[in-house]
Hints:
The structure is a single chain. By secondary structure, the protein is α/β, with parallel strands linked by helices. It has three domains: 1-136, Indigoidine synthase domain (Indigoidine synthase fold); 142-322, Indigoidine synthase domain (Indigoidine synthase fold, 3-Layer(aba) Sandwich), CATH 3.40.1790.10; 331-685, 3-Layer(aba) Sandwich (UDP-N-acetylmuramoyl-L-alanine:D-glutamate ligase), CATH 3.40.1190.20. The chain is built from 24 helices and 27 strands. Strands 1, 2, 3, 4, 5, 6, 7, 8, 9, 10, 11 and 12 form a twelve-stranded mixed β-sheet that branches.
Amino acid sequence: MLKRxxxxxxxxxxxxxxxxxxxxxxxxxxxxIAEKHPVVALESTIITHGMPYPHNVSTAKEVxxxxxxxxxxPATVGVIEGTVHIGLSSEELDFLARYDGSMKVSRRDLPxxxxxxxxxxxxxxxxxxxxxxxxxxxxxxxxxxxxxxxxQNSLDISAxxxxxxxxxxxxxxxxxxxxxxxxxxxxxLETQGVCVATYGPSKDFPAFFSPLSGxxxxxxxxxxxxxxxxxxxxxxxxxxSGVLIAVPLPQEHAAAGQQMEQAIKTAVAESSxxxxxxxxxxxxxxxxxxxxxxxxxxxxxxxxxxxxxKVGSQIACALAKLPKKRxxxxxxxxxxxxxxxxxxxxxxxxxxxxxxxxEFGQTNPxxxxxxxxxxxxxxxDCLSRLGQQPLFISATGADSHSDAVFxxxxxxxxxxxxxxxxxxxxxxxxVIAESGELSLGLGDMDIHQQITERYVSQFxxxxxxxxLVCLDGNIPISTIRYVCSMAQQHxxxxxxxxxxxxKAGKPFLSDAWKSxxxxxxxxxxxxxxxxxxxxQTPEVLPNSPDQVLTLAVALSRPLLxxxxxxxxxxxxxxxxxxxxxxxxxxxxxxxxxxxxxxxxAVHYPALSVAAHETINVSGAGDxxxxxxxxxxxxxxxxxxxxxxxxxxxxxxxxxxxxIAPVLTPHSVDPHQAQGHSRSQPRFMWID
Length: 687
C-alpha cells in the first residue's frame, strides 16, 4: 500500500522535473546549473541502506539544509521507477526512506534497475555518473568504498575506486573506514590516476571516524579556495579522472570518533575470530559497532556527514566563483554526437479536410489527429533517426502535453530540454486541405521565449565543441545573437532554419547574421531576410519555375558575402543550393576560413510523389534540412547530401508525422533507396 500511495505522489510530482528517457533533473538543480550557481551532488544509499527510518530521511533533509545554508543547491541522486533523479523533492526523499524494496545501485546495476523500472539508492559510483552527466563537479558523501582486507586475494575492490579513475568529479568524503585496507586503497587510487588530497593543515589521511589512519595523502589543501583551485586544474587539464578530497573529523567530535574506532577494532577482531569472510564481514562489523557503542555510532556518523556537507558546499561555492578558464570536455564523448539543435517543441493537432477546398465559417468533414512537431524538435528527430543523436536544447511546460512529448521522443537526447512550472507546452493546430497544403495554422508558442541566452549558456561546452549548431527561428533574438557571438569568436558553424516569413529576419536585425554558415529558407523567407537588410525585393513572388530560380539566385547573392551556403527550399520545385564552387558543384563541407570564393548554384528537382500518397507537407522542409545536415556531418558529397534530404522529405510527405518513423540511414541513401530517381541537377554560376 505504501509503495502505491508514494508512487501516486511521485507521478504527480514528475511534472516539475527536467526529463529525458532515463534521467530527470529537478528544476531547482537545472536552474542553478543554468545560472552557474554552485550545486552539490549527494548520494542516496545512506537513505536506503545506511540508516534506519526515520533517521535516514531526517539526516538527508538536514544535509540538504546545510548545503543550502552554505549557499549551494543540493542535488540528491536516486533511482525511482527506473529513472535516475538528479535532485529529489521532499516526497521523493520520503519514498526512498520508507520503501522496503529499494536496491543498492552501483555502476553495474544502473542498466538493470533502469530497464526494469526499479527504485533504489545510488552508491558513490552511480552518483558520480549522474552528477557528471548533469554537469555537477562536486559530490559529497560520508566515506568511499575501498580495497577490502585480504583484497589482494579476494579481489573485493569497491567500484567507487574505479569510478574515481574515469569520471572527473570531486568527491568530498571522510576518507575510508578503518575496516578496509587503507594502504592498498591509496595504492589502487594511485594506479587509477586519482588525485588525493587531505583537507586542512595536515597530510594525514583520515579513516572515517579517526583523523589519523596511519597513512598520508599525496597532497593537502588547507581551505575551500585551495580545494576549488585543485578541482579547477583537473578540469582545465582535461584529465578523465576524479579528485578525492579527504576531510578529517572535526576536533569537537574526536572523543566520539575515538570510541567508534575502538569499537571497530573490536568488531574486526571478533569477525576474524569467528571466521566471517567475504560479503558478510562489513554488515557484521557495522551491526557489532552499533551494539558496542549502544547506538552512538549513528550519531557520530550523522555528525561526520554534516561536516562533509558543510566543507563540500564551501568548496562548491569557491569553485563557482573562480573565473572560468576551463577548456570544455568533448561533447562527442559526453553525448555521442557533435551536433547541437536549439529550438522549439510543439504538440501538433492536425485537422485534414476531405474536400479540395475548405469552407470557413462552417464545419467541414475531415479527421483530426495529434502528433509532435516544432522545427527544432523535428530536425533533432530527423538527425536522431539518421544515427547522429544531437543534443537538443528546448523548453516545455510542466503539464500533460510535455509528458506525452518526452514519451514520444525517447529515441532522442532530450537531457537539455527543461520543463518549467507554470508554463504551457507549445501547441499548434494546423488545418490542411485534402491536398496536404496548409490552409490555416494557430499556435500557442509563448514557451519558446524561455529558451533564453541564460539557459542555453549552460551548454556552452557542448556548443564550443560542436561541428554544427542548428538554430530554429522560434527562439528569442537574444539567444540567436548569443550563439552567433560564440560562433564568431570560436569559428563554430551555425545553421539557421527560419521557421516562417515573420521570424526569418531575426538574425538580420543586427550583424549576427554574418556569423551564420548555413541557412535553409523558402523563397518567401529568403525575401524577408533581404528585406530586413534593406535590400530590394519583389512585392509578388513569381510562379514560373525559371523566374523562381532566377529570383532565388539573385536573393541569395548578397547573403553569400558572409554565409557559407544557402539551401533554398522550393516546395514542389525542389531545392536550390547556393555557395562556393568546388569540383563542379557547391561545397557543402563545413567552412574552415573566410576567403574570396567563386559562387555557383545547383538546382535539384523534387522527387515525384503521387497525389494519393500526399498526407502532410508540414515536416518536409525540416526533414530535408535534417537529412542534409546528417550528410554534411558524415562527410558526404553535395549530391548525396541533397539526395538524402529529398528522400527524407518524400518520406515525410507520405507520413502523418512531420518526421517519418520509418526514416533510417538506409531509407535515405540515394545509392540504395528503392524507387529513387530524379531529373539531373541544373548548374548555374552566380556573378
